[in-house]
Amino acid sequence: MPSADPIPTPVPVTESLPTHPDRLRVNRSPKAFGSGAYSLVDLPAGAVFASITGTSPGRKAYTSVQTGRDTHIELNSDLVYCNHSCAPSLVFDMARMEVRVGDDKPLKVGDALTFFYPSSEWEMDQPFQCTCGASECRGWISGAKTMSADELDGYWLNGHIAELLNERK
Fold it and tell me: Which residue ranges does the record annotate as region Disordered (predicted)?
């Protein structure tokens, strides 16, 4: 009997179909999780880098982004190559469906495009040991659920993460 699964399989992002060719370049690596995105533009702190469009509903997965308490999306774009950093260059604002430059510093051509995964992820599908090298590196990244208020202090957080943290108190 065919599955009645309402969530489609993510559309793979291909080299031949960049979705943001004026904004970012993707450096692909044969190494697992070694690919990354880099800025092609200079933008001031707080500026909109890109709108999040063309998404599809998803499940908690290493390729998805959490949009609410129990909802995830697949980006279906080259934004999926924006990696984690504990000193992120971007904010993924899931309420506004936009990616913005962080409020603390401008974005320069060539900068790695990164965001702080616990800002959108309550519980990661695939936790990992962070190797971002930032002085404020948080080490083991498994989502906001396992982080203390002190560890999250100073980071921009999506509304659903802030709500879940308040409920945890």
Answer: 1-21
- What is the domain partition of the chain in residue ranges? 34-168
Residue 34 has a pLDDT of 85
pLDDT tens digit string along 120-137? 999 999 999 999 999 999
pLDDT band at 14 (very low <50, low <70, confident <90, very high): very low
Under the banding of pLDDT at 50, 70 and 90, the label for residue 10 is very low
Q: Which of 105, 83, 92 is nearest to 38 (CA)?
A: 83
Mean pLDDT of the chain: 91
Strand 83-84 relative to strand 114-115, pairing? parallel
Q: Are 19 and 75 in contact (CB under 8 A)?
A: no
pTM > 0.90: no
Output the CA torsion sign for 100, 51, 14, 40. Answer: negative
**Residue 37 bridge partners (DSSP):** 26
The alpha carbon of residue 45 and the mean position of all alpha carbons in its chain are separated, in whole angstroms, by: 18
CB 50 within 8 A of CB 98: yes
Query: CA torsion 42→45→48→52, rounded to 10°?
Result: 100
Residue labelled with tokens 């943001």? 20
